[in-house]
Amino acid sequence: MKKSAWLPAVIAPVVVAGAIAAPALANAADTPLAGSHPTAADVIASVAKSSDAQYSGKLSQTSDLGLPELPTGSGGSSLEGNASDALSMLTQSHTARVYVDGGSKQRIQVTQQLAEQDLVRNGSDVWTWDSKQREATHVTLPKDTATSLEHGTTTPADIAKQAIDAITPSTSVSKPTSTTVAGQRAWQVVLTPKSSDTLVGRVELAVDQQTGLPLRATVLAKGQSDPAFQVGYTSLSYGAPASRLFDFTPPSDAKVTTKDLSDVEHHAGHRGHAGDRGAAPTTTGTGWAMIAELPAGSADTSSLDADGSALLGQVTKAVDGGRAIQTSLVSVYLTDDGRVLAGAVPVSSLVAAAK
Predict the structure, then answer these.
(1) Dihedral (Cα; 291, 315, 59, 180), 10-degree rounding
(2) What is the pLDDT of residues 85-139, one digit of tens each?
(3) Does residue 222 sit in helix, strand or coil?
(4) How many helices (H) and strands (E) does the chain have?
(5) DSSP 3-state of 215
(6) How many CB atoms lie within 10 A of CB 318?
């Protein structure tokens, strides 16, 4: 993933998707849930009807995974800069403006000091923009692309979708309780893993009582009372955003990369071959203790310079067969033969799975 994306967009799904073992509840509630006494299934099912919602809002994301705060990289090797920038996404708070007009028009603006990163979708056209690097990417999506935007920034809906898939015998689901998020009345549902092997303590989802829109998602590590990861709206207003927000033209001095995926289905058979760096990860285990593994060559650290190696040594520790990092919520293991294993489990579980 490019460094301009929020890294929790990778981490949070690894945490919550540990229980992808059952199909999502597909039927939306027929009527709003406000004023009623819904079941947890009613609340979660209501999320499906929010796919055509129109709204604007401000998102706040916080992460407290027990990682040291490191300065963002502006010098040294590009690998060093990318790594430190990525780590900053996990150790610092971030805000984003979100504009949504149904399932095919979305804009997300992430602002940092003296920089802005944008993700704009208008139908089959998707633009990403990094003002600091002066780089833009234009992607043409297949016509049958799912309506949800699945690149970059994590939203409550992203985590809610994976939490819906986690409603299995491995998870305890609470009765909904009433709460308020960004001035909207919401139902909150708590998902608690039954497994003793996971680092996840519980996932809290707040869903708008009227629209079914996920407003806040909170992940707490086992044994901790403060969130390890949280993303939620701090302000929200319903209604169609201005159409100009979904039009994007890069500056004349920008470096532009184009990717045409309109016929990607014709190349689907080429994915997943052994040795393909784009191959999908294999998985072991089930439920919240599931472990994802990328093939050999995914973690090639041989090209790191001295500064990059020092940074790697600072954030990881030597373990049997490689190096690893364990946060309060997720662990990552880089094996000596270049594989990457990750999961919401202790490092010892990853080392055992790699043998």
Answers:
(1) 70
(2) 445 555 567 889 999 999 889 999 988 777 888 999 999 999 999 998 999 999 9
(3) coil
(4) 6, 19
(5) strand
(6) 9
